[in-house]
């Protein structure tokens, strides 16, 4: 889409155009509304269970319809977290929290049809999460044996691997998963408060129950021998369970305004390590997100007893601004992408951009700025920093590649995703057995099914991306990359030029 130029700005705009063309950069705006629509649509490709008639990605079909039968419980539904066919509860709960926070913070900026689609995506997860806490003093944390699943390359519709159910019973601890589930249910209760108050009430009631389970029996779920072999090394708790207790309490405080949860956050901040690892945010480490979330009460509500959370949030945000002395703590690729060692790097770019935009909203509503020592950082600066990450993901990068599948004309064709890479059951109704799928995995051809809206793990520190299905660290999409990106895109869909 060509920029809208006034006569007064024609000359400087032409100069800018020539500079951009000379650098090989895009010289037009991204279609953030289209990207938002696709980012939400992606979740339909990750659905497990009985698919509805209005399913839009038609190459998917019903799967996992007997999940939970070994424990005489219905555990159908929910999402496959990435390119495999396992339902991991820990990242699914975090995905749900971030989708809900996206709507809580930016839902009013979404086109009405996309707000509806976002609510549908959230409810697909919350319906499942309610099942995981349906029995007293027990939480179901996973469905599917990851070892047997990862030894096969097969469609979810053909699954013949073990659908083992992993549960944690009190007094064994599961503070991380239960705390994150409490956060997800509390945050989502706010999403449905006006559109479905009865469902909202159910979510909130179960959020409290999940939090009590998390707090009463403290410890990491992956320390339990009954589940450790299934959840590790994939979604072990690597960074401790304490942040999820504070995170769950913070969301319950936000959803209920109950001072008991405020007191919990105040009194447990130091003992639960709220000031630790403040520069991380993702499915395992909630510290940066926790600090931003709680800071709302300080910035907008003058609750100064939570000032330490605000100080930690702003310390983290200062590291993201290249002009500040603190910026040496954050790595960027030569092309400008936030980079952290490990796989699925774009999860950091989307979640950090989300936190920048949320905090920018706090600052805008109160006409404040952040003091980063040698510079003052405004809401506009935070938004501009976030936009750089968004535009990089959508194609403004050295590879000239959109890392969102189906967005633009140039995006990865060989993503690490079973359902996308194997023929659809609609086109190939015969079962493709466990090892028969290897032919498709090893193929150099493009995936036959486009997983529209999926954001892959992304390039390495050198900005290089090789379109290789086997390189799962770069080519595999995940729900927790997309979830915060929904909120980010909602903001820029309404405010393309911050």
What does this structure look like?
- The protein has helices at 10-23, 32-45, 89-106, 112-132, 146-150, 175-191, 197-216, 225-231, 242-256, 259-268, 287-299, 307-319, 346-366, 379-394, 418-421, 438-441, 472-475, 479-494; strands spanning 87-88, 138-143, 165-169, 331-332, 338-339, 370-371, 376-377.
- By secondary structure, the protein is mainly α.
- The strands form three sheets. It has a three-stranded antiparallel beta sheet. Strands 4-5 form a two-stranded antiparallel sheet. Strands 6-7 form a two-stranded antiparallel sheet.
- β4 and β5 (338-339) form a beta hairpin.
Write the layout of secondary structure elements.
Layout: H1 10-23, H2 32-45, E1 87-88, H3 89-106, H4 112-132, E2 138-143, H5 146-150, E3 165-169, H6 175-191, H7 197-216, H8 225-231, H9 242-256, H10 259-268, H11 287-299, H12 307-319, E4 331-332, E5 338-339, H13 346-366, E6 370-371, E7 376-377, H14 379-394, H15 418-421, H16 438-441, H17 472-475, H18 479-494
Antiparallel strand pairs: 1-2, 2-3, 4-5, 6-7
Signal peptide: 1-29
Protein name: Endoglucanase
Active site: 416, 467, 476
């Amino acid at each position: 889409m060509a920029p809208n130029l006034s006569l007064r700005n024609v000359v400087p705009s032409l100069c800018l155009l020539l500079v951009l063309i000379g650098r090989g950069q895009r010289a037009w705006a991204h279609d953030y509304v289209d990207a938002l629509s696709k980012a939400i649509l992606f979740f339909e490709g990750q659905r497990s269970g009985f698919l509805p008639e209005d399913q839009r990605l038609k190459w998917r079909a019903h799967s996992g319809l007997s999940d939970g039968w070994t424990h005489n419980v219905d555990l159908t539904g929910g999402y496959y977290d990435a390119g495999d066919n396992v339902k991991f509860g820990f990242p699914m709960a975090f995905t749900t929290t971030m989708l809900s926070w996206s709507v809580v913070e930016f839902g009013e900026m979404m086109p009405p049809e996309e707000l509806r689609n976002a609510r549908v995506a959230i409810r697909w997860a919350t319906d499942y999460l309610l099942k995981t806490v349906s029995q007293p003093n027990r939480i179901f944390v996973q469905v599917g044996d990851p070892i047997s699943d990862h030894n096969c390359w097969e469609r979810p519709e053909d699954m013949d691997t073990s659908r083992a159910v992993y549960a944690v019973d009190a007094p064994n601890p599961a503070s991380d998963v239960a705390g994150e589930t409490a956060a997800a249910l509390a945050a989502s209760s706010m999403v449905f408060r006006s559109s479905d108050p009865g469902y909202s009430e159910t979510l909130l009631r179960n959020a409290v129950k999940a939090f009590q389970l998390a707090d009463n029996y403290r410890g990491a779920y992956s320390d339990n021998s009954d589940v450790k072999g299934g959840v590790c090394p994939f979604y072990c708790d690597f960074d401790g369970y304490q942040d999820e207790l504070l995170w769950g309490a913070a969301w319950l405080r936000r959803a209920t305004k109950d001072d008991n949860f405020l007191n919990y956050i105040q009194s447990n901040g130091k003992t639960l390590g709220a000031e630790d690892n403040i520069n991380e945010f993702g499915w395992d480490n909630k510290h940066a997100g926790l600090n931003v979330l709680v800071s709302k009460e300080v910035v907008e509500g003058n609750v100064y007893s939570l000032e330490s959370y605000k100080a930690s949030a702003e310390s983290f945000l200062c590291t993201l601004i290249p002009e500040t002395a603190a910026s040496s703590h954050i790595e960027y690729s030569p092309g400008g992408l936030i980079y952290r060692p490990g796989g699925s790097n774009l999860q950091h770019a989307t979640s950090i951009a989300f936190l920048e935009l949320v905090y920018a909203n706090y600052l805008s509503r109160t006409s404040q700025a952040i003091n980063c020592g040698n510079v003052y950082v405004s809401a506009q600066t935070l938004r501009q920093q976030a936009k750089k990450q968004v535009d990089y993901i959508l194609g403004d990068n050295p590879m000239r590649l959109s890392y969102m599948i189906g967005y633009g004309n140039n995006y990865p064709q060989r993503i690490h995703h079973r359902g996308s890479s194997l023929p659809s059951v609609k086109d190939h109704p015969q079962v493709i057995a466990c090892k028969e799928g290897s032919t498709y995995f090893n193929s150099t051809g493009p995936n036959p099914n486009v997983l529209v809206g999926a954001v892959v793990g992304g390039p390495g520190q050198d900005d290089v991306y090789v379109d290789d299905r086997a390189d799962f660290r770069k080519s595999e999409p995940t729900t927790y990359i997309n979830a915060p990106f929904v909120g980010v895109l909602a903001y820029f869909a309404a405010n393309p030029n911050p």
